[in-house]
Amino acid sequence: DCEREPLRFLDEYAELKWTSRRCATDVRCSPHQRELFLAAYGARANPALSDAEGCLLVWNLAMRGRPELAFTCSSAVLTAQFHRYEPAIFFGGTQAGGVVLWDARAKREPVLRSPASGGRHTH
Hints:
The structure is a single chain. The chain is mostly beta strands. Helices cover about 5% and strands about 40% of the residues. The protein is built from one helix and ten strands. Strands 1-2-3-4 form a four-stranded antiparallel sheet, with no helix packed on it. It has a four-stranded antiparallel sheet with strand order 5-6-7-8, with no helix packed on it. Strands 9-10 form a two-stranded antiparallel sheet. Strand 3 (about 55-60) and strand 4 (about 70-75) form a beta hairpin. The longest helix is centred in the N-terminal third of the chain and has 4 residues, at about 15-20. The radius of gyration is 15 Å and the shape is globular.
C-alpha cells in the first residue's frame, strides 16, 4: 500500500543545462509508461538572459544523466501533469497564473497557453 510506505531516496536525476540552480516544484509518475516521470522546475537562481524562467523535464528511470524530453516556459512552472489519454501531451500551471500545454511532437515551447487577463488566467 503506497499510502503506508515511507518515501526513500533511490537516485538523483539531474543535468547541468536544465536543473542547475533550479528547484523542483512538482514530480509526477506517468500513467502510460512506468519508467517515465516528469518534474516541473522554477526559475534559476541568478539566471542568464537566455535562460527560460521555468521548465518541464520528462525523465526515464534508465537515464539519470539527461532528460528524455525537455520543455521551456516563460514563467516558472509550479505544477505539471501527464495528459490522461495522450502520452505526448503535458500541461502545467505557472507562477504567472497561466495554464500551458506542451506537445512532444512539436517544439520545446508551449503549443497552447491560457490568455492573460489582468494578471490572471481566464480558464
